[in-house]
Every structure is written in structure tokens, then in C-alpha cells.
């Protein structure tokens, strides 16, 4: 540690605990504007908060390592996924979604799982959730979905998680007006909606990605992270009890486990689909409200990720960390998934607003590989601006800047195959909800029935929220939505809710 304090510019300061004052003989005095330390300290304090994330505001975070455990060269050319035993540094942020930074992390919510792998070919980001499906498949609904999970615009009170009223859609809530959310709601209101530990839950890409090879071939994949600690969830009653005593329970559990050298780890796996299979598969493979059944596409292991170091400084390491699904290395590419395409814009745009246009230069986001991007320069907080290098591509004035990179992308983004054209036609109409949209949810209802008490707890969790709906016609719409999954489910939900309302 230094043996003296300084101002931010490095000038030594003799006493960091006392301001400069013009004193009288009785111990009183006036503060002086010449006290640079006082002025700087007060001014900086008012500016110490950066904009909070609109979603995923509350999170735990840690550093770790990804290790390749299997030969993956037949499906991808990504360097960090090839070479058994190869290790890559990573950063992980695990968050709630709807609540503010100061909210409880044990209340029912989806949990985000953001990862950054610092590879020799640049950073690879993934944005996963702890549920394999999502509420919507049309990105136009994304802002409304997230607003619907925020506080009521008039009362500033949290609405019932089942019947969010913002935005208003006639007499419907967001979810009854967007019934494709039923699969995610069934998952969220089961015990999986209240994980007992961030270390003991899985994570899923939800999105369909491509793994590509240098010859231009590719496979469609969905990523799965399988917890090696097992799965552990709270019941609703347990989560609410812990919420009342420790709203930071999940963050504390993760931090203290790593401090004890109990490093959590996950097997990183993929489901792999040939592009030709996608053309005839029974469901649209780019629909985030559906899964690929494992009986059709079993898991294949790529490697293992382990978190082994807590952040040195939470703000610097985790709060300033920026993740975007648009950040991809050669060997990984986007699919025609509409939600993925929209998020590839929305996420980095959020970081430009929240952290500034040069957020990639912050230490926690900075690539470990070499970076040469002189056509993105200037702007606030730029710490590396390429000196006198020409600031546009293909200039004859700078022999170090080339119109075409000497490093191939390793993806198939530059070619449009007949299959890609087929994909474009298939995903043109994605909003209408038909009976087939309930098929997988019916399967989930049957799976929950195989373990004693799971269906009962799901109904109890739903009824506990639906009872808060004062509008009788809106409650009826909720019953009808779940009755489309199973008539017995809708009837039991109605009976349980009406008991609580009475």
C-alpha cells in the first residue's frame, strides 16, 4: 500500500479525513472552495453510480476456467473448443431478471447466466438462462415482456407475476395476451423457478446457434450447462422464508463456497442437429418457446467450466462486465433465430448506453488477444486510440490497414445457401399460437406428475399469484390458458384460486 494519499491526478495530500477550513477561535469555520480534495470527493460521490441494468440487475459473479474434455474438431473450428486439455480463462455473471439490484435473489424468477471466454481469437460471449425455453419468440415483444415484469406504472408496486398489467392489451395481461409464454410459465412456476443455489442449477442457450468449420459446413446446436453439484430447488414457502431473513442468500452462497475452495463446475454440452434435419423437423428449431427432445438429439459433451476465484472488486469486475450474444469467435455463428438476431443488437447497444461507447476497453471486458480496430476510435473514455494510424479501412496512406483481413472468419456468414433461404421463409410468420404450441407443455405437465407433489406445488404457486387478480374475467382467461395445456390443470387451478379469493 502507498504511504500517502493523493488526488486523482497523483498530487500528494496530507490529510484525507479533514477538509480545509477558515477557523475562528472557538473551533468553528468556513469550508473553502480551494479545497480540491473536498470538491472532488463530493462531486465524484454524486456520480459513482452507473445506470443499472434494466433487466438482470442483481447478480453474483466469479472468474474461472473452461477446459476442453472431448474431441470437438468434427463439428467446430473454434480454437478454444479444440484440443483436449486446453484451458481458457472465463468470467461468469449469474443474475435474477426482473428485480432491481437491491431486490431479493430468492424470489421466483428466471436466472440469467452470462459468460465471457477470453480466447486467443477474441472474446466469446454467451447469454443463457436457467430455463431451456423463453416467454416469447417474436423480438418485437421483448421490451413489453420485460416492462410487464416491472413495477406498476401507477402504484409503483410489483404486480402479480402471473398477470402483469403493463402494457394493457384490452382486458388481457401480457401473458394471457401472449399465450406462447405458457411453456416458460409452467417451468417458472414449478420448483425450478426458485433455485436453492446458483451452483446447483443448469443453464441453457435457448437460442439455436451454429457450430462452423473452416470448409463452410455447419451444424445447428443448442448449448446446455449441466451442474456437477446436482440440482437443488426451494419450495415457494422456503424461498419466501429465506427472502425475509437474507435477500442476498444466493450471492452469499456462491461467494462463500468459492472462498472455501468448493469450486462449482458445469459440464458444457450441446445438442447437434444437421441442417437438413431442420427442414423436416416437427417444430421450428428457431422457436425459443420449444425444446429439442433429448431422445431426438442427445447431449454431447464439449468440456467443463469451473469457477475458482471471486471478484477482486465487484464493481470493476462484475458490474462493469458487458456481455453480448453478438460477440462470437470463428467457429461459432448465429442462426436465423429471430430472438438471437434482435439480441445481437440490443445487448451491445445497452452496454454503449450504460458504460460508454468504449466499454470493450474496460479491464474486465478487454480481450486477451491482440485488438486492431482503428475504424472505431475517439469517444468518451478511450484509452487506446491507435495514434496516427489511418481511421478508415483500405487507405493507401497506411500500409498496416487492409481492406480485406488476412484472417478468415471461419463462419458461413458470407454465403447464402439454399438451406439459408429455406430458413428465411420458415421464420417469416412466428407469432400465431396454435394447438401444437401446447404439445411440449403437456409433456412437461406429465413429467411433473411422475414425482409426488410437483403438480400440486405448481398449482399452488400459480394460485398464489392468480388470487391477486381482482378482475374476474381476467382470472377466467388465466384458467382458460392453462386449461389448453390440460383440462384438469385449468380446473384445479380455478378451484385452488377461488378458495384463496373467497
TrEMBL record:
<dbReference type="GO" id="GO:0020037">
    <property type="term" value="F:heme binding"/>
</dbReference>
<keyword id="KW-0376">Hydrogen peroxide</keyword>
<protein>
    <recommendedName>
        <fullName>Catalase</fullName>
        <ecNumber>1.11.1.6</ecNumber>
    </recommendedName>
</protein>
<dbReference type="GO" id="GO:0005739">
    <property type="term" value="C:mitochondrion"/>
</dbReference>
<dbReference type="GO" id="GO:0042542">
    <property type="term" value="P:response to hydrogen peroxide"/>
</dbReference>
<dbReference type="GO" id="GO:0005777">
    <property type="term" value="C:peroxisome"/>
</dbReference>
<dbReference type="GO" id="GO:0046872">
    <property type="term" value="F:metal ion binding"/>
</dbReference>
<keyword id="KW-0408">Iron</keyword>
<keyword id="KW-0349">Heme</keyword>
<dbReference type="Pfam" id="PF06628">
    <property type="entry name" value="Catalase-rel"/>
</dbReference>
<feature type="binding site" description="axial binding residue">
    <location>
        <position position="347"/>
    </location>
    <ligand>
        <name>heme</name>
    </ligand>
</feature>
<dbReference type="InterPro" id="IPR024711">
    <property type="entry name" value="Catalase_clade1/3"/>
</dbReference>
<keyword id="KW-0560">Oxidoreductase</keyword>
<dbReference type="GO" id="GO:0009820">
    <property type="term" value="P:alkaloid metabolic process"/>
</dbReference>
<comment type="function">
    <text>Catalyzes the degradation of hydrogen peroxide (H(2)O(2)) generated by peroxisomal oxidases to water and oxygen, thereby protecting cells from the toxic effects of hydrogen peroxide.</text>
</comment>
<keyword id="KW-0575">Peroxidase</keyword>
<dbReference type="InterPro" id="IPR011614">
    <property type="entry name" value="Catalase_core"/>
</dbReference>
<dbReference type="InterPro" id="IPR018028">
    <property type="entry name" value="Catalase"/>
</dbReference>
<keyword id="KW-0479">Metal-binding</keyword>
<dbReference type="InterPro" id="IPR010582">
    <property type="entry name" value="Catalase_immune_responsive"/>
</dbReference>
<comment type="similarity">
    <text>Belongs to the catalase family.</text>
</comment>
<dbReference type="InterPro" id="IPR002226">
    <property type="entry name" value="Catalase_haem_BS"/>
</dbReference>
<dbReference type="GO" id="GO:0004096">
    <property type="term" value="F:catalase activity"/>
</dbReference>
<dbReference type="InterPro" id="IPR024708">
    <property type="entry name" value="Catalase_AS"/>
</dbReference>
<feature type="active site">
    <location>
        <position position="129"/>
    </location>
</feature>
<keyword id="KW-0017">Alkaloid metabolism</keyword>
<dbReference type="GO" id="GO:0042744">
    <property type="term" value="P:hydrogen peroxide catabolic process"/>
</dbReference>
<dbReference type="InterPro" id="IPR020835">
    <property type="entry name" value="Catalase_sf"/>
</dbReference>
<dbReference type="Pfam" id="PF00199">
    <property type="entry name" value="Catalase"/>
</dbReference>
<feature type="domain" description="Catalase core">
    <location>
        <begin position="6"/>
        <end position="401"/>
    </location>
</feature>
<feature type="active site">
    <location>
        <position position="56"/>
    </location>
</feature>
<comment type="pathway">
    <text>Alkaloid biosynthesis.</text>
</comment>
